[in-house]
Every structure is written in structure tokens, then in C-alpha cells.
Write the C-alpha cells for this entry.
Amino acid sequence: MVKIGDLEIGEFPILLAPMEDVSDPPFRKLCKRGGADLMFTEFISSEGLIRNAQKSVQKLDIFEFERPIGIQIFGNNIASMKEATQIASSVNPDIIDINYGCPVKKVTCKGGGAAILQDIPKMVKMTSEIVKSTHLPVTVKTRLGWDENSKYIVEVSERLQDVGIKAISIHGRTRKQMYKGEACWELIRDVKNNPRMHIPVFGNGDVTCPKTAKEKKERYHVDGIMVGRGAIGNPWVFKQIKHYLEYGKKMNEPGIIEKANMALEHLKLSIKWKGEKLGVLEMRRHYSNYFRGIPKIKNYRSQLVETNEYSEIEKIINAIKLNYPKS
């Protein structure tokens, strides 16, 4: 049984990665139903949180059905990160997760996310102070390094463990790679095989299907797998992976009607949580994934991302179901 501190999360847990503007409560609800063992909020700015910014505070919304759930924070200032940790801990998540992996420029230019990989001593000190600031288990999500010349993840993971983190999730790319090229899991395996490591090590990167998940488990010996982009438009992926790991064969893929129903439910949940205007707008990034690979669907997808009213979107989705009744 894999444990993060005293928290049991399964024999080989499949985790939902924290993704900005994706892993909000509506999406997390569908992924939990789809078999996710552990999920995280979108990352929350420590500066926004301590200043009570509405967008940051709203991301603290967690629900009992999501447990176990981690709140992920990011930032560059140690004092702010400590204070944000205390605020996040007050809403009683199961885990506090630190984002040391986000590669986007608007985060790294302020020293947050993966930028901390350029200053390992500060990364270690910040982590130590965060661990001291909460009664909850602290975990880290990071990358192999800043660039090809600074892939110190084996040493970094050991040092973070030594200051008290209870698990680490590693994306198999550097910050410079962003999401390009193939994720390198060999270094993730090196972290796991380090005889000094005793906390769970989760691998992340390029897990888009059950077969890939099985290959990663067997080849790299990680304690679990974190799925990010592979879950977008496919909240079933967690059950699919678990089924393949247990039985060695694929589950039946959901049909187009099932996908359409899920997309509509996702939209309703999004509107309920954010209001119609924002709920409709932020669902647009999901439609191409829900309906990927369906023949002659392009026109419907275009309509879905150009329509601003729920009633019209519902009609479009119902038209998809009507035109693909046996799929």
C-alpha cells in the first residue's frame, strides 16, 4: 500500500496532475468518478492567496467527495509561501503540494514554478519552511531540472526528502523542454532506485493510454503514475489504466453518445460552479478532446467553441448524439 505520511492511496495509485484552468472542481468530480486515486487543485499563487485575491481564494474550494485531495501552491517568496501554506491548511485538505514544475513564462519570470530549479539551496530552504508551517503531509511536483545542464533531480529529491516531504511527483522533462520531445523516465527511475529514498516517487509525462501506463510501471518501477493531459476529455482514463494493469487488456472505449453526455455534464457542472458566461467559456478547451477522432465532427466542434449560450450548446451536443446513434 502506497502511503503519503499516514494517508493510504492504493497499491499503485493513478493520480490526476494539477493543471491550471483544467483541474477545477467540475473536472475533478468527473475524474474522481473515473477512478483517480489522488487529485490536486489547480496551482494557487501564494501572493494572491495572502492578499485574498478572489481567483486564488476560489481555488481553495474542495469537497468531501474528492478526498484524498491536495492543494497546490506556488511562489518565489519564502515568507509568502509559509503564510499561504497556513491559509491552505486551514480548509483541511489532505495534502499541501508545492509546484516546482510549472514551465510557463508568466510564472517562471517571477521566480515561481520551475524557476526555483535554478536555485536549489533556496528550493530546499523553502520546502523546509513549508513543512514546518503545516500539520499536513507536504509533497512536491517538479521537473528533471531547468535545462539539459542542470538535471540534478536525483540529488534534489533526496534533499527534499531530508527536509520532510512525504512524496515527490516528477515530470520527465526540463523546464527548457516545456512539453516538447519525449519525457525521460530514466532519471525518474534513478530517483526511485536511490537506496536512500523511502518516500513514494510518482512518474509523470506522456502517459496517454493504459498500455503506456503499464510500460512505465514495469520499466521504471515508480510507486504510481500521474496523468495530466491524457485525462483532458477522457476522465475515464484512470479506470482504463487500472483495468489494463489488472487484466492486461483494454476496456471498451466509451461511445460517442457517452462522450457527448459526459461533455454536457461537464458543462453543467462548470456553469454551476462559475456561472454561465465563464462556465461556457472555460469549457471550450475540453470539446476537442471529448470528440477527438470522431469522423466528420469538425463542424460540430467549431459550433461548440463559437457558441456562448448553454441552450444552444445543448442543442449542438444533442445533434451529435442524434447523428451518431450507434457509436
